[in-house]
Amino acid sequence: MLTLKAHGRSELGLHREGNEDAALFSPTLCAVADGLGGHAAGEVASRFAISTLAELIKEKKLSSSKISRQVREVDKGLATLIEGEKQYGGMGTTLTAVFLTEQNLHVAHIGDSRAYLYRNGTLEQLTKDHTMIQEMIDRGELTVAGAKSHPKRSLLTQALMGQKKIQPDVISIDIFEGDRLLICSDGLSNVVSLSSMASALSQLSRESAVDTLIALTYAADAPDNVTVLVADVVSEKNVSDPIFLGSAVDLS
Predict the structure, then answer these.
(1) What pLDDT digit, counting tens, does each position of 70-109 carry?
(2) Alpha-carbon distance 111 to 158, whole Å?
(3) Residues 110-130: b if buried by 16+ CB within 10 A, e if exposed
């Protein structure tokens, strides 16, 4: 039976007063949420998203449709929170998660946090950002290089904000023992190149890979909160409890 052995860190960065990222890793689920809408509200949104998604850890028969429904439940729950508390108006969160089942890997995604697959020395991005910049790239109006300095590079086209009009991406891929997964907030992907990520992931130790990726972010001035999860697909029993990070750390 394939399971995930993971390690992760969530850090403040050099220019933020609070950590609005939240994350969890477990033998079957790894997820990152990046909160939006200001210090307190962003933390609430990301924590809620991770805690709601964590309910699926106990599910014995996961499917893409179940995962999609749970992501929509996050959005519905945020709508209720926003309606009940004026200070939560405008809050939201991204959400990117990988679920390992007996058959394959399901990837759920909304926003601009990312999931990558590192296999046989090659790093592949599994998710596509829900941003205005990505849409411009898709239409051929902007190059990837040009996107890095574009003034609207952080403008999201989709996020979980309680608006009930979301279309989360849920894909399924074949997964194999020896594969390595990286799930991260844009605090990493906005400042660290794909080649540098791949080099860090080539290290044998998950802990060393995570530490190197965090260090690279800080070397690039760490303008945002940064959350990094590295998970190896292994063929061994793993029944460890989920570990929560960032604004969700008190859920552990």
Answers:
(1) 999 999 999 999 998 888 989 999 999 999 998 799 999 9
(2) 5
(3) bbbbbbbbbeeeebeebbebb
